[in-house]
Amino acid sequence: MKAAQPNDSVDGRYYRLFAPLTFYHNVADKTLAMNSESAGKDAVSDEVDAALLNVYLNRPDLVCDTESDLQETGSIREDVDKPIENQVEFVDAVDVPVFDEPEVIPDTLMVQKPKFWTYKGDGFLQFMQNYVSGNWYKGGESNYSMVGALTLEANYDNKNKWKWDNKLEMKLGFLNSRTDSLHKFKSNEDLIRLTSKLGLEAAKNWYYTLQLQAYTQFTKGYKPNDPVVYSDFFSPLNVNLGLGMDYKVETKDKKLTGTINLSPISVNYRYVGRLALGPSYGLDEGKRHIWEFGPNMTADLEWKFNDVVTWKTRLSAFTSFKRAEIEWENTFELRVSKYITANLFLFPRFDDANLYDDDLGYWQFKEYSSLGIAYTF
Fold this sequence. Notes:
Layout: E1 8-10, E2 13-15, E3 21-23, H1 25-32, H2 43-58, E4 63-66, H3 67-73, E5 117-130, E6 143-157, E7 162-177, E8 186-203, E9 206-216, E10 221-223, E11 226-231, E12 237-250, E13 256-271, E14 289-304, E15 309-319, E16 324-335, E17 340-351, E18 363-376
Parallel strand pairs: 3-4
Antiparallel strand pairs: 1-2, 5-6, 5-18, 6-7, 7-8, 8-9, 9-12, 10-11, 12-13, 13-14, 14-15, 15-16, 16-17, 17-18
Helix pairs in contact: 1-2
């Protein structure tokens, strides 16, 4: 077979051929076919096929191979038209080193002092008016009354088992009654009370506690149309110091909170500035003070039934094994709005140091209801 030479001519045209040609069947089939569907669709492909056919007819000596020979040398891969799927192989995670960013040193350093003290308080001022006509079938009398209260708290907690709670309660109320010709106003609520507790945590919600309670009143206490003074500032003054345990009450929803104090060892001191009032408060005739020893229990709780109704209760009980004194204060607060509240106060009390009453014995009872403003801070 003659090798291709440069500048060989075919039909007067010169071609530079450097490699043998291959005879492809589709070139001849496309030309000889009467109606070829692919003819005329691709101009470049038609020109290439025409050039190859010209070589096949005029220079068959340049054709060295046929398409059949190529197929015999090896089949064409049929999987090239299939999508290539990546084979993912999982290996153990490799720890990537983390490079710490350089720390930024502040130009100024501010140190805040821990807040061990917390302060809070609340107060209210409420009024009540009652009118009864002179011919009211059940009797009674018209009156006006007012009561105000202020509670202040200062509590210390060093977050390391020590606590010191302090509460100061002050109440003062006045009543005007038409039938009382001796007193234009007389007190119907009068209290100054300080409660201070120093505690060391013993277990969850339990504290070893030293508790101090002291209470007296602001003004003189009278009865209607009676000039006798039944109580006064420091008449009496009660001071109780007890050593025991204190339990912190707090439910999960925090609707019921407060403390219960049990002091199996306590000393109670009572003083009267008015000497004549001594026997009315368990003192011997001519004595101004008395010391008593015995157990003491105090419970101070607050139960929020909902956002409207709250019950505040305080139960105190002391006995010297010669006399007993029990006080149970209950305040039901109905919050009408943010600053308007209505209160119902119930106060049963037992004290066998006082004179015996034919109707109630040693029991005493006080109750009032009022409406007014309240504020918490």
